[in-house]
Amino acid sequence: MDRERRRLRGRGGNNNHPRRVLADVVIRFDPTWLVTILLLSLLLLGKATGTTATVVVSGSMEPGIRRGDMLIVRERRNDGDGDDNIRAGDIVLFSTELHPVPIVHRVIELHERHDGGARQMLTKGDNNGVTDRSSLYTGQWLHDHHILGRAVGFLPYLGANILHSLSTLHRSKCAQFTNLEISNNLSIGSTVSLIKSAPKGGGRQQRRAKGMEKVAVGLLPPLRFIAVLAVVSWTSFIYCHFSLLSGGLLLGHGGGDDGADPCRGRYIYVHDLPRRFNDDILRDCRKTRDHWPDMCGFVSNAGLGRPLVDRADGVLTGEAGWYGTHQFALDAIFHNRMKQYECLTNQSAVADAVFVPFYAGFDFVRYHWGYDNATRDAASVDLTQWLMRRPEWRRMGGRDHFLVAGRTGWDFRRDTNINPNWGTNLLVMPGGRDMSVLVLESSLLNGSDYAVPYPTYFHPRSDADVFRWQDRVRGMQRRWLMAFVGAPRPDDPKNIRAQIIAQCNATSACSQLGCAFGSSQCHSPGNIMRLFQKATFCLQPPGDSYTRRSVFDSMVAGCIPVFFHNATAYLQYAWHLPREHAKYSVFISEHDVRAGNVSIEATLRAIPAATVERMREEVIRLIPSVIYADPRSKLETVRDAFDVAVEGIIDRIAMTRGGYARSWLRPKQSRQALDARRRRLS
Hints:
This protein is an alpha/beta fold. Helices cover 30% and strands 14% of the residues. The chain has a six-stranded antiparallel β-sheet with strand order 1-2-6-3-4-5.
């Protein structure tokens, strides 16, 4: 055996000779090499196109980007005219003075300086436990001059052949044979720029930085041959390049000339949760019959409930779209609506947000009465532990995750409640407090829960359904000046419902539905909508909590809401309702009502008729943004409450990353401001 090895090592028998290695590559040619060579040929045109290729050699960007994937990188030009519109969430190619070897990682924070100075960026590998500031450029920030380019797409596995050949060529010790410069950074597990244009000149020199070695190796035939191949294959390359980029593989949110992708900045990745977190909860709907009668009926039809049959008096339209929807059914409605979302992606690295389809609201009902706190929290603890083991969680520590909990935020903050046995601790436990949560009523004490509208009875299937209903509401005759639907709260001396009911009973201009315990009037969608359609103003005092489903039912009927507390709507639904509250509503202080200092009827009669018409028209205009379309169909041009909520949550996550939210997004507040708000609300 030793004799055979010595014979092969003799003159003319070196298996590691460069020509023999190249011949071995050709012999083992497979179809993926054709695309690989075509991509590499683009390097010759890099100066003209501003695009280059990068192969991933480690797992620091998994699971979205894996070892052997090829990234398409748009280079940043030294004159500043390149693709500089980098935003948080983009994947960039960079190098620093302390780390000259190019690295490909994601920007997780970006800070603009108000004094006009250079902006600061922080990067991190999606699969790394720490930021690059802790490992690659200790104590520093990245600036624009460190950025070499921005990733705009990737081609799975097409770099695998290159990596295989590199390992062979490294063993051949033929560095002097190459026209490419390869950087290897496996020692610290970072994703590096593997392919880069070689500098002109004579021999190669090894460069070392923090234990990293750049090795010049050869892989391709002479450059003139590649140039000819590139010209011949240009049409094929263009087809592959643009078809892949337009197929949902865009990375990041930067500007430039990629605006053709309608989903840019809107991609959502949905966790494939075990069934115990959603479907199994619905399957056990009969277990809640003592506390949520007929829950199984309410969660049928994708969460919408049973269809409503129109009455002879035409309270509802004679078309489909009306259901007996429960006010706490949003978990299932939102999840089913998300399944139809046009910008879903199965590449978590591409996603601008990650949706967690956990039915927290339904889980609340299962174990709230007659169980201990450990049982109430069991599913939430199970969920957070499952999530925190996922690589998608490690990218931002869960800050890009969101879920829907179709109840008030207080139902998931047991430790902050007066009643120590009420609700779960989902929003205060580790993992849960890191996510954004869409609730029906925000606690207003923490920036992680955001209020979205209660489900109404109306779930249109098309734009035409919405437009027809708006026209119908616009032409209704309003018989009553004001209306109220609700029960008194005799056990709560601070509640003003008793005063409102008394004022309503004292005038013929007001109508109300009696909702005392045992009454069925307030549980009939037809009765509720009939009253709201005949009233100009609908009174909306707080009930068990600040918010009410009745607010949105009345708006769907074209009735102008009258609020008595800021937390009923103004501090809650910043995404769905205008900041200019007087455009669509009336505010009367609950303190004046409680003290008997104000007449609700006189206040409403004092509003000019022209103003009332403008307010009603604004309410009618807002109808699409406060309803949830039927999840089994799709609206084309109308944005419903789901669309508005998704846009809002993506903006919120962008703000967390260091990006910039739209001007109407609720701003961050200081701890002193939150404490002051808590004192006011109490």
